[in-house]
Amino acid sequence: MSKFICDRMLRRLATWLRIFGYDTLYAGDLNIEGDEDSFLINEFRDRILLTRDKELYKRSEGIRPVFLIRSDRLGEQLREMKVLGLRFELKMDRCSVCNTPLRRPSDEEALEIMKRENIREDLRKRFELWYCERCKKLYWMGGHWKNMQRFLKEYGLGEDN
Fold first, then answer.
1. Residue 129 in contact with residue 109, Cβ under 8 Å?
2. Pairing mode of beta strands 23-26, 66-68
3. What is 33-59 written as a DSSP string?
4. Contact 74, 67 (CB under 8 A)
5. pTM above 0.85, yes or no
6. How crowded is the C-beta side of 19, counted as CA atoms within 13 Å?
């Protein structure tokens, strides 16, 4: 499975790659000291650098795996990435915020978050829940899940494409 690091121009793409289960770092989440472009060129070379910056792309070629994203629209960015052989399947593998692998929450963890976030407790009976230990966030396949599936279908990127 491919692993990625996205430059600051690709926050939404990083989030969606995480939703698809891809291990994806985002430059804006990293504590980068000094020149960010040099960091992106030289660090995390086991990952494909995704960038919209043509100059960064040119500087990275031959040094590390790099892929230039041309569009500024998410659906089109995902279409561009099809050449990398990615599968655009919605998963509950990674936190879309911080990239930490998700797990099932304990009853105590779920109830604590539900209380804090004013989420109705019957959600536990209606949906399977996933939990991010780092963000202390719950995930489930609610209405937003259907909206994401609709978005993928609109761009011809669903699980059957």
1. no
2. unpaired
3. -S-HHHHHHHS-TTSEEEES-HHHHHH
4. no
5. yes
6. 18
